[in-house]
Amino acid sequence: MSPRKAPALHGTDLSLREHLIATATRLIAERGTTGLTVRTIAREAGVADGVLYNHFADKEELLALAVRAHVRTVGRHLGELPTPGHGSVRDNLRAHIVYGVAFHKAVLPAFAGLIGQPKVLDAFTASGAPGEDWRDQLRGYLLAEVELGRLAADASVDAAVAMIVGVCHETVLTGLLYDASAPHGLSDEFVDDLVGTVLNGIGQARP
Questions:
Q1: Which of 51, 70, 86, 122 is deepest in the core (most CB within 10 A)?
Q2: 23 φ, ψ to 5°?
Q3: CATH code for position 174
Q4: DNA-binding residues per UniProt (predicted)?
């Protein structure tokens, strides 16, 4: 005889562990991680506080898995990234930059409450699949274009990645820290300038 299903799971196909992760993921998407407690997660999930510790080593493990689920959900909603060898490199870089800003705008608030929780951040990093994070996908895209001969063989891929990711971070963080009411985006003109600088450099003036 199979065990009775917990009342909180009626009408779902989830295990209790999956239900707790899904509940924490929803709360993170709605409220961020600041002040998110075991009691809040348990109440939203419709279970007793102590139940969490039957399925996770600690609160940090649950939070890390929930943040990872939130990040993956955001990525799915943003759609597919460009495929190496298809379209122009310039347009593909534009698409990566637009994606990167939207991605950071959606996920960075979730990390605000985790700055002082290195255990959660370490567990979050460990929970990812190799190459799944957007920075890794951007790097993989550029390396693939080098292999295809559409970028120079000696292209400074890591420097280009750092430049693009840095712009995405700075754009979103500036808005979050200094002017939350301002739109956290980049103008089309700036994106074009950034792509041009990545591809062509800033150049030295001739004497």
A1: 70
A2: -65, -45
A3: 1.10.357.10
A4: 37-56
Compute the distance between CA of residue 125 and CA of residue 197 in angstroms, rounded to an integer: 31
Pairwise CA distance, residues 68 & 123, whole Å: 9
pTM: 0.85
Mean pLDDT of 11-19: 79
Burial label for 194, CB within 10 Å (0-12, 13-18, 19+), is: middle
Assigned domain for 144 exists? yes
Examine residue 106 and state whether it is found in any structural domain, yes or no. yes
Domain that holds residue 60: 13-200
Return d(Cα 35, Cα 116) in angstroms, integer. 12
Number of structural domains found in the chain = 1
Two tokens, residue 71: 């990040």
Burial label for 76, CB within 10 Å (0-12, 13-18, 19+), is exposed
Write the pLDDT tens digit of every residue in 32-54.
Answer: 998 899 999 999 999 998 888 89
pLDDT tens for 73-110 read: 999 999 999 999 999 999 999 999 999 999 999 998 88
* 164 lies in some domain: yes
Each residue's pLDDT tens digit, 146-181: 999 999 999 999 999 999 999 999 888 887 777 655
Structure tokens at 41: 């997660």
